[in-house]
Design brief:
The complex is a heterodimer.
Chain A (H helix, E strand, L loop, with lengths): L5 E2 L10 H7 L1 H4 L12 H21 L6 E4 L2 H16 L6 E5 L4 H12 L3 E5 L9 H7 L4 E5 L13 H10 L3 E5 L18 E5 L10 E5 L14 H4 L7 H13 L2 H21 L3 E3 L10 E6 L4 H10 L2 E2 L1 E2 L12 H5 L4 H5 L1 E5 L6 H21 L6
Chain B lengths: L7 H8 L12 E7 L4 E9 L6 E9 L2 H14 L4 H5 L3 H7 L8 H21 L11 H8 L3 E2 L4 E2 L6 E7 L2 E6 L8 H12 L7 E6 L2
Parallel strand pairs in B: 7-8
Antiparallel strand pairs in B: 1-2, 2-3, 4-5, 6-7
Helix pairs in contact in B: 1-2, 2-5
Classes of the chains: A alpha/beta, B alpha+beta.
């Protein structure tokens, strides 16, 4: 029925780049020891050097200082570590109030909810219809006992980019720590801690054609953070557990392989996808912002039809996309992001997210738009909505 | 062959649904569900006035694959049956005719079954086949809760023993559900209960409490 699969769910995860795998291989088959101290054994010292080189590369890209990058098992762990680590460190010293935006991804949102169950108080910041938080509202919600504010750099579903520089500055002015989840921007949008005074930043390899289950947390020197997972003394005694050295090496390589030209190409695919859907398919709404948007994300609601029906029809034509529809999700809940930007359930159910990556082409963008126009047309013919 | 938890029959009905579209001049019709709950089905029937046999049935669907497939099969099953026979078609029969449906999608597909029943009821009301308006009873409410599913188990609230209490006083219904208020599907279940009860002619309010 179709010649090849077209994968357009690159915000979920990406295909590994072969060059990343090649960079990782020596640390799986040759220098496979743990990172030992300088008094350990040669293979372990070599392994440590590889880990430190990878760390150094991330450090450089973020403008970070020595010992400010801790490798983790991915963005979920990084965000858990940031929220729970700060909560544990400051609950007795400063307070138990945390601020997060309503449209955070689950690691931040559910860490906040878990802390709430343990007696912390959490303020969930509203966002406007494009997904941006209101800076004045942020200012007014930070209290004496606020220990941490966590607002994502960009949204996982609708791609809205927050003004994290302004947010970080407000937090510092009000003496609260600031964490940002940069899973969907790292490597694609500029992020330098000498410019943006964030205290904690979550980053991950799976969104950039790197290995999955490797991430890192940037921790500004002096940030109070308790170790939340007990074990050995790895990663400056902040993150216990065997270091994933091939993963760290692969993460650094993946980051290195991202070029501004490629990011520009993704933005062109995004723009073409959005423009064609808006111009050629009637009754559609762009979700998120036209301008403050990650280069790889397009998210459009096709009204009067349900997302799972669209994704299943697209699957039969060889396209993989995702939807905010309740029927598609594991929880059977409509997307909290779509509801958070003031969308109703109908807007969430009909929303389709296209996220582009290195292995996509403009022909594939045209292919998916042609297919979706046809699928949506067919489904609307049998829909009772939009005719009454 | 299919990678989805859908049978080949479900996928076939999803790809090429039968009896699709808005019927001109139907004898009975219904719209059940709402865009808010994620699924909506309209069912239309053409009935022989003499024999009370359903001569044609059509549907429209705003919903997922199981919703569309059930609309397709239910209209197939209804055609040629008398109203009384068609009323008895239940979700189990529809599901069996489709080669099985995933339990988690029960609520999406039961909607089409409800749609057919409501279209028949609509026909009966229009043609004076319904007796006096019957006052709602606790038993009637309990019966309707059999159409509200816990998506986690695929069981309805009654079979899943989740209805702790139903009280009805002067048109005010109070239902106590044996699930924690922060249950992952509390809101969905609340919406569905409300949808099944609140429109009844003598019901003034529906209060739903979650307790565990």
């Amino acid at each position: 029925m179709f010649d090849k699969w077209t994968y357009l769910d690159n915000a979920a995860t990406t295909r590994l780049d072969e060059r990343v795998l090649e960079a990782m291989k020596p640390y799986l088959f040759e220098t496979y020891a743990v990172a030992t101290s300088q008094f350990g054994y040669s293979m372990g010292i070599d392994a440590r050097e590889a880990l430190d080189t990878a760390r150094g590369y991330l450090q450089g890209r973020l403008g970070a200082a020595e010992e400010e990058i801790v490798f983790t098992s991915g963005s979920t762990e990084s965000s858990n570590m940031a929220l729970k680590g700060v909560a544990l460190a400051l609950q007795k010293k400063k307070g138990k109030h945390i601020v997060v935006s309503k449209i955070e991804d689950f690691p931040v949102l559910n860490s906040a909810k878990a802390l709430e169950m343990q007696g912390f108080s959490v303020s969930y910041l509203d966002v406007d219809k494009e997904g941006s938080i209101d800076l004045d509202k942020l200012r007014s919600v930070i209290r004496e006992d606020t220990i941490l504010v966590s607002v994502q750099h960009a949204n996982q579903e609708i791609g809205t980019v927050q003004d994290i520089k302004a947010i970080a500055e407000i937090c510092h002015e009000r003496k609260a720590l600031f964490h940002t989840d940069a899973t969907h921007t790292f490597g694609r949008l500029p992020l330098d801690v000498t410019m943006v005074p964030a205290d904690l930043i979550t980053v991950a390899g799976h969104t950039m054609h790197g290995p999955r289950n490797v991430g890192a947390l940037y921790i500004r020197k002096g940030t109070p953070l308790s170790k939340w997972m007990d074990g050995g003394y790895q990663e400056f005694n902040l993150r216990a557990g065997l270091e994933d050295i091939p993963g760290a090496v692969g993460f650094a390589k993946a980051l290195e392989l991202i070029t501004p030209e490629e990011t520009e190409r993704l933005a062109e695919m995004r723009d073409r996808c959005i423009a064609r859907c808006l111009n050629e398919v009637p009754h559609v709404t762009l979700n998120g912002s036209r301008t403050r948007r990650t280069p790889q994300n397009a998210n459009i609601t096709f009204h009067y039809v349900e997302g799972e029906s669209i994704t299943l029809h697209l699957d039969m034509r060889g396209f993989a996309v995702s939807t905010g529809s309740a029927c598609f999700s594991r929880s059977l809940e409509a997307s909290h992001v779509m509801l958070g930007i003031g969308g109703d359930h109908e807007r969430a159910h009909g929303s389709i997210r296209f996220t582009f990556g290195r292995y996509n082409s403009m022909e594939e963008v045209d292919g998916v738009v042609d297919a979706i126009a046809e699928v949506v047309g067919d489904l609307r013919k049998i829909s009772p909505l939009g005719k009454r | 062959m299919s990678k989805f938890p859908y049978s080949e029959t479900v996928l076939e009905h999803f790809r090429h649904p039968h009896n699709v579209g808005k019927m001109e001049d139907p004898d009975g019709e219904s719209v059940v569900g709402s865009p808010a709950c994620g699924d909506m089905v309209a069912v239309y029937i053409k009935v022989n006035a003499e024999t009370k046999v359903i001569e044609n049935a059509m549907f429209e669907s705003y919903g997922c694959a199981s919703n569309i497939a059930t609309g397709s099969i239910i209209t197939d099953l209804a055609k040629g049956k008398t109203l009384d026979e068609a009323k008895k078609i239940d979700w189990k029969q529809a599901s069996a005719a489709l080669g099985g449906l995933p339990p988690i999608k029960a609520h999406c597909s039961v909607l089409a079954v409800d749609g057919l029943r409501m279209a028949i009821q609509n026909y009966e009301e229009k043609h004076g086949l319904v007796k006096e308006k019957v006052p709602t009873t606790v038993e009637e409410i309990n019966k309707r809760l059999k159409y509200v599913f816990n998506p986690l188990t695929g069981l309805d609230l009654v079979r899943g023993k989740l209805v702790r209490d139903i009280s009805l006083e002067d048109g005010h219904v109070k239902i106590v559900v044996d699930l924690p208020p922060d249950h992952i599907f509390a809101n969905n279940i609340r919406e569905e209960i409300d949808e099944k009860i609140s429109h009844l002619w003598d019901i003034k309010s529906v209060e739903i409490q979650f307790i565990s």
